[in-house]
Design brief:
By secondary structure, the protein is mainly α. The protein contains 23 helices and 7 strands. The strands form 2 sheets. A 5-stranded antiparallel β-sheet has the order 2-1-5-4-3, with no helix packed on it. It is elongated, with a radius of gyration of 36 Å.
Length: about 725
């Protein structure tokens, strides 16, 4: 009897029909606790994801890697997601979903901590500099040594001689840890969205489910704002803060060698993600199924709805089905889905546009840094405070417009296309917002200061520094009094230095000025008035275009849902996510970074040899490559939209004709039925007595005997 009673408490698939006591609280409070935990998990994962993008330039400089490798690291998150998404989507729904989400958050936290690990094992950051580190030292080494003996006395390395400091260092690059940590983050993030949203949809009331999902999605938009703000804060702090004397640091946040405390943000994001896993361990596997139809979760409603026949198909996805049967059905179903030309064209359009969007967003902070001379901290701050809120407001406004205008399928397609097209034309103005290249002697301009570009034949050596034994590979820029940046004090021909740290002044520089023998100070010349005037206009146009383009996000997503059959909706959404992650999320950062690398003018050199991070770019080429690739992809997507509109118009007209035919057919059937009823009524009115005489004996459906009324009618007939 105990076993029977226990089985009576369990519904189909082992789900409890009785109030759950696992959480020690009421079903409503358990659902609200899950909603709060899921919102916090969404916030944590979106914060860490946006923080990863905000540290791109910091990681490049810290590990001396080019942009395409940063693209590989950024795309590794999608790789980790794709590795387990099929298993999590299928098996996760049959297991304890809150605990699966908790495990995912735990893995995300571990992956985030692994990303920060290299900072604690790689040693202190050493940037290229010829500035003295000893504050109280009376020695003033000559920036421009005249012979090799002077170089050896200063402890420097002769040009072309291998650096002995390489011996004993690990051959494995430290950025591998960042890559592996990001893959683990992608694996851990996989169950959060599908299992979390399905849990809410299963146990929330019909009218509250959409509201709860909307709240969670809103929180996921707030996370990137704080992620970029965290990136801005950490970029201001020197990477080895607390371990070095800041008075000895001769570079600032605007210097191309500056590396902020990138690791600090990952520790903060890791702690937040770890905390987000805690509540899920205390949530029940399932809540009472009656809560789906209850709005106030009262005991009366729960007991009333518990026996409702509408709950029979509540969990159709969990019905036992053989693996072979599912495998046999999968390929034909997928063939039917991909046989829908509108869905296929929509998939191609979104893949192309997401390539453009992901590549643009990934390298936008770097573009602001390199093109407009802004610091990494300011670029991240503007992304978090200005761009991300504009995108969120655009998505919300797009959904509101769709509701107010009551857009049809064709209306939603036209709305999404028009907003994207307007944003495209506005983006063309970015080409006009250009800045001149920084004047770097021997790289962009000759040593005489003439405005002649040297991109094709750069020459670091000239007559004014021919007496100095210098290395052309070093990047230790100084700003001369003539407003030109020199690659190093040695190449500027400076023979004396005064001061220490960032206050160092180089004197008797033979290459500075037309007459020579002028002074130079540490750091690159930052006086670019044209960029300072142009940057506010760039920022305003960026906000406007982000808002307009994001207006079509919600109508475009609704188009995806409406253009397919209802029974294929889940497969269509899943395949869409899989295709966009594989063909856009992974490759876009890689080839965008590779194309940006082709515009580099001066590469940094690793201590052990090899190309490091880029120090200065060709501004015009960078702008053309970055904006040109972004807009070219969007142009291609518009061309693919043309056959999509033609097919969509045909489908809409075909559905309208079918609806009219169906209405006419139904109307004819109703008229025919109505005519038959009228004829039957007239016949009944004309011969009522005859019909009563000829009426046979009526028996009930169970074969019972004739009633007393029937016997009475028989007697009247005989009389």
């Amino acid at each position: 009897m105990a076993v029977g009673a226990e089985q009576g408490r369990l519904g189909e698939n082992g789900r409890s029909n009785a109030p759950s006591r696992d959480a020690g609280s009421s079903p409503c409070s358990s659902l609200k606790m899950f909603l709060g935990a899921l919102s916090f998990a969404y916030f944590s994962k979106s914060l860490s994801g946006s923080y990863m993008k905000s540290t791109i330039t910091q990681l490049e400089r810290r590990f001396d890697i080019p942009s395409y490798l940063i693209g590989v690291i950024d795309g590794s998150f999608e790789v980790g997601n794709l590795l387990v998404i099929a298993f999590v989507s299928y098996f996760g729904a049959k297991l304890h979903r809150p605990k699966i989400i908790a495990i995912g958050c735990l893995l995300m936290s571990i992956g985030t901590f692994i990303i920060a690990l290299p900072h604690f094992i790689i040693g202190r950051y050493e940037f290229e500099t010829s500035v003295r580190w000893e504050i109280n030292s009376t020695d003033s080494p000559a920036p421009c040594p005249k012979n090799s003996a002077a170089i050896v006395a200063q402890g420097s390395v002769l040009p072309g001689v291998p650096n002995t400091k390489c011996e004993g260092e690990s051959n494995m690059s430290m950025w591998i840890y960042v890559l592996l940590g990001n893959v683990l983050r992608g694996i851990g993030e996989t169950p959060v969205q599908p299992l979390g949203i399905s849990y809410i949809d299963d146990f929330a009331s019909q009218e509250n489910a959409a509201l709860y999902v909307g709240c969670v999605q809103t929180i996921s938009v707030v996370g990137p704002v704080f992620g970029y703000l965290l990136g801005s804060m950490c970029a201001k702090i020197y990477v080895d803060i607390g371990f070095v004397n800041m008075e000895t640091i001769s570079i600032g946040p605007s210097d191309s060698r500056w590396v902020g405390a990138w690791w600090l943000g990952y520790l903060i994001a890791g702690v937040l993600t770890l905390l987000s896993a805690v509540p899920f361990w205390f949530l029940p596997r399932s809540l009472p199924v009656g809560q789906k139809g209850a709005t106030r979760c009262t005991p009366e409603q729960t007991s009333f709805i518990k026996d409702s026949p509408l709950l029979e198909n509540k969990y159709p996805a969990d019905e036992p089905t053989g693996f072979l049967e599912m495998a046999r059905d999968f390929i034909p179903t997928l063939r039917i889905l991909l046989g829908n030309p509108i869905y296929l064209i929509y998939l191609c359009v979104t893949i192309i546009q997401l390539n453009s969007l992901i590549g643009m967003v990934t390298y936008k902070p770097k573009y602001i840094e390199q093109h407009f001379g802004q610091s990494a901290s300011k670029a991240n701050f503007l992304m978090g405070v200005v761009n991300i809120p504009a995108v969120a407001l655009g998505m919300f406004s797009g959904g509101l417009c769709m509701k107010k205008l009551k857009l049809s399928l064709m209306g939603a397609a036209k709305f999404a296309f028009s907003t994207s097209l307007i944003g495209y034309f506005l983006s063309l103005f970015f080409f006009a917002m250009s800045c001149e290249n920084a004047k770097v002697a021997g790289v962009t301009v000759p040593y005489d200061g003439m405005d002649v570009l040297l991109f094709d034949k750069p020459s670091a050596f000239t007559a004014c520094n021919s007496d100095c034994v210098c290395s052309a590979n070093d990047w230790d820029p100084v700003c001369g009094e003539d407003g030109i940046t020199y690659v190093s004090p040695c190449l500027a021909g400076c023979t004396r230095s005064d001061g220490s740290g960032s206050n160092t002044v180089f004197a008797q520089c033979s290459c500075v000025g037309s007459a020579g023998n002028l002074t130079a100070r540490t750091g690159q010349c930052l006086d670019r008035e044209d960029c300072d005037r142009m940057f506010p206009y760039f920022l305003a146009l960026s906000v406007i275009t982000s808002f307009i383009i994001s207006l079509g996000g919600t109508p475009g997503y609704m188009l995806l849902i409406r253009c397919i059959e209802p029974q294929l909706k889940s497969l269509a959404l899943g395949f869409h996510a899989l295709a966009t992650r594989t063909l856009a999320g992974i490759p876009a950062p890689i080839y965008f970074g590779a194309i940006i690398d082709t515009t580099c003018l001066k590469w940094g050199q690793k201590r052990c040899g090899g190309i490091g991070a880029c120090r200065i770019y060709n501004t015009a080429a960078y702008r053309t490559a970055y904006l040109g690739l972004t807009l070219s992809l969007r142009s291609a997507s518009f061309l693919v939209c043309i056959p999509g509109f033609l097919l969509l118009r045909q489908q809409v007209r075909r559905e309208q004709r079918n609806a009219v035919r169906g209405a006419l057919a139904n109307g004819g059937a109703e008229m025919e039925a109505l005519g038959k009823d009228e004829t039957a009524d007239r016949e009944a009115a004309v011969v009522p007595e005859t019909k009563s005489v000829r009426e046979p004996v009526v028996r009930d459906t169970e074969g019972s005997q004739p009633t007393a009324e029937h016997h009475s009618r028989d007697r009247e007939t005989r009389l």
